[in-house]
Amino acid sequence: MSTTRLLILGLVSYLQPVHGYDIRKELMSWQVDRWANVQPGSIYHALRKMTEEGLLEELGTEKAGNRPARTRYQLTPAGTAEYQAMLRKYWWDYEEPSDPFLAAFAFLPHLPRAEAVGALRARARLLEGWVKTYRDNNEEWTEHKPAHVGWQFELTMVRCEAEARWCHDIAARIEAGEGIHTGEDPGAGDAEEWRAAIRAEYGEPVDDEDE
User: Fold this and answer.
1) What is the pTM of this model?
2) 177 exposure class (CB count in 10 Å sphere: 0-12, 13-18, 19+)
3) pLDDT tens, 19-62?
4) Among candidates 197, 189, 187, which has minimal Cα distance to 116?
5) C-alpha span between 35 and 44 (Å, rounded)
6) Rounded CA gap, 152 and 138, in Å?
């Protein structure tokens, strides 16, 4: 929700006064559903909620022909302050990306060794395919857009390239015999050994009620 709020507040700041429909259309053209996990329906919900909170102000509703009525928005002073605070928070803070792959990788020992190697190499090829697509279409996607849009694509490519190299490296290490995997010699990768390895790294689990 915080990412959705920042994107909407920032876009209203750029375009105000602006219709909610135009905010949605512009954000979807940025493909925010892919890299920011912002869904189309959440945009209108956020507009209503931030209006209720006093961050946005409605400037009236317009209706043309048979098209749905459209409401124009602008930032309130409180909305401007919130936008500036959020903008600087995300520039100076770091949050690890949320990727379901990390949850699956946590259970790597449950995959047979050969399957894990194949899966990692397939993921690397997928990432390399994305990088090629970005490179092949970069000029088209960034045409008539500010320079920083191209820089954002560069960041995406760098991240994909780095993860692809990591996938190849881990696949090679698994193939060479490192780690523990299901279906191997008795005792290898069993629950007790795995639990011991986890606790050696992270310590004993703590019951919140005991704190």
Assistant:
1) 0.71
2) exposed
3) 888 888 888 887 787 777 788 888 888 999 999 999 999 987 77
4) 189
5) 19
6) 11
